[in-house]
Design goal:
A hairpin with a 6-residue loop joins strand 2 (17-26) and strand 3. The protein is globular, with a radius of gyration of 18 Å. The longest helix is centred in the middle third of the chain and has 16 residues, at 71-86. Strands 1, 2, 3, 4, 5, 6, 7, 8 and 9 form a 9-stranded mixed sheet that branches. It has helices at 44-56, 60-67, 71-86, 90-97, 140-152; strands at 7-14, 17-26, 33-40, 100-104, 107-110, 116-129, 159-164, 169-171, 174-175. 16% of the residues are buried. By secondary structure, it is an alpha+beta fold. Helix 1 (44-56) packs antiparallel against helix 3 (71-86) and helix 3 (71-86) packs across helix 5.
Amino acid sequence: MTNAPLQAIRVMQRKGSTFVGIRQYTAKGTGEEANHTILAGYSYDNAKQHDLAIVQSADAEALATQVNQPVELVQQALAEIEKSLTKPDKARSEAQANAYTHVGNGLKIHNDNGDLYVHGLTVSKKILKAGEYPTVNSKPITICKNKVKKALGLRTDKIRTYIFNNGTFAMRGVKV
């Protein structure tokens, strides 16, 4: 275990929804430290249905102007995004279902290592300490898809999973 600051998790129930406040979360790849608020347990299937309707009704020409990309590339990006929303990887989904014990809405514990996984829709993020971000060397279609997803405000692009190693976080002031 590292000497990283203890990360705090607060779970709140409001009008039937579960919100989770995560404080001082350090991203593994970049070292960015931030406070996050998420809507825990947000349905990925509902997000996909919402996003599919938006993608299918998107105007490629207007979107191309908005994201400053060629129309043909935007059309290809929309087609690939639509395919990803309609053709899930079933084998991966079944394997993941047996690896965790669900302890609450959007909260699950990995059966092998005891890590806590908090899954949900990002509501807010406040960066406390910027991280080191790698240079992006993506293909043009990938860059275009990312710009299109952001421009359309797709919900599936805002769903995150935060992983807390066993013993590195506190809930209600108690180290877990």
